[in-house]
## 1
Amino acid sequence: MNDNYILSTTTMVCMDPKTAVMNYQYGERAKSELILMSQLSLALSGFSEQDRVGGRKMLIMMMESVRSELAFAQKSTGHREFTKAINFLNEAISLNESNQPEQASQKIAMAISAATTPAQEAWQVLSEHGLL
């Protein structure tokens, strides 16, 4: 293996520094956006029925935007955890459409976990390269 790649002995992560930077950036951004989506999903429970309809529409539009960013991250990095995050977010969107915001928030938590994995792996690689 050349000097641009580090094979970690802890979790067997193998990625070059450029890919690590991209995974870290996309993972951290997705995590922040998904946390916000989870909070907004839970907030829907406190809305009046009239306000909930509009709030749900807006939330779903935002979730679809986050899903697009996750898809871009997956295509840019090839990391399978972004695909898992997309699948969990798809489930959360369906649950919000069915007026089940608490259950949607649980699926978003699973998406957060999946999206965080590439960032954690990337942090390890960047640390080993002395970049963090």
## 2
Amino acid sequence: MRKKIIYEPTLSDSALLMVDVLGKAFVGSFFLHPYYHTYCKHTKRQSFKNALTRLENRGLVLGERRNGKVLYCLSEDGEKLANRIKLKFEMAKSKKWDGKWRVLIFDIPEKIRSKRDFLRNELKDFGFYQLQRSVWVYPYNLPQDFFDLWKDLDFGR
């Protein structure tokens, strides 16, 4: 039986995508957005505001205070993460399999274990199947955007 690739965004992912779609927006604008009702329907508004604050603390969104309200927009790093999340959604869509497997093999040293663990988690989110610790397969063509995401990661080369 074929495993269906499902990507479920976190609350922070949803907030980041909404900032991306809205451009610049005050917090009140988010509660009218369809992403909020799709991905955050059982979430309290305060939890959503906390997610935006965490994104701001991580430098992914920029908050500009105006008349007691905060106007949010994406930073450069936030744009990169938003593109990665959109790509995960795109790769999770149902596709017709061409009968070929794409194999990804890597060897990342123990001293940069955190990057290796990050890579493994991202591969899972993208829908890759793990055969062994550093051997992963994917049943569909990989878009160029997937490879572009990894250019920013420095694995010690």
## 3
Amino acid sequence: MAEKDNDRAIIIDDEESVCETLELFLSNMGFFEEIVICQDGHEALKKLTTHDYSIILLDLSMPGIDGFEVVNKLKEEHKTDENFVQRVIIVSGGLGIDNIEKAKSLGVKHFLAKPFDQKEFRGKVQKIYTILKARMS
């Protein structure tokens, strides 16, 4: 079971420049004590089983385990928490209708299409973070 710590965020994307940008955006928000970067699905799943993250930024298209498989594994591990997947934000350049529908069928509700700006990013993350904190109070 993952260690509880709701001031962590995890970025899962195979593009280093995207990871750096997302890390900067998250750091500027000041919400998170720790921001973890994983550049593949295998590494991400290891991190996700040892710690709990309040925000999970996830790319769909990665070598090896893709974003859809990461979400499936998270759903399996958190069967008792139907709301867990709501902390996932799909951040992807491949957000066509088919991918959005597939992600929605897995319970994902939040999407950001690459490229995006910091204001759009901040609004999305702040909304989810606020909802999560309210549930925990």
## 4
Amino acid sequence: MMTKKLVLLVMLLTLALGVVGCDPPERLRSDAELSLNPVQAAGHHIFDHQCATCHAAYSPHVYKGPSLQGMFKKPYLHTGAPANDDRVEDIIETGHNKMPSYSRILTQEQIDQVIAYLHTL
């Protein structure tokens, strides 16, 4: 009888931790699932390899940097700057706070592709 109660308690605790615990990691979504055009798809690939370790794309979860979900649907970025292509390009090129500069890592075309992808979030 004591074993059944212990098993039940462990199951309830496991369920409670699953409901209240950490968010599961974001599932990578395919370009087809997202209905991306070729430019956005290229930006998606770059984002997954260069940005996703610090920024969430499809959830409000904060990693090392702010979530980018819906960033162009808001009037202002997390920094307080206007949410527009020029300001986002500037942040990607020069960095901000703990975010490093990507001006020597990404070409201008790649930055434009990432920005096109960010518009889909």
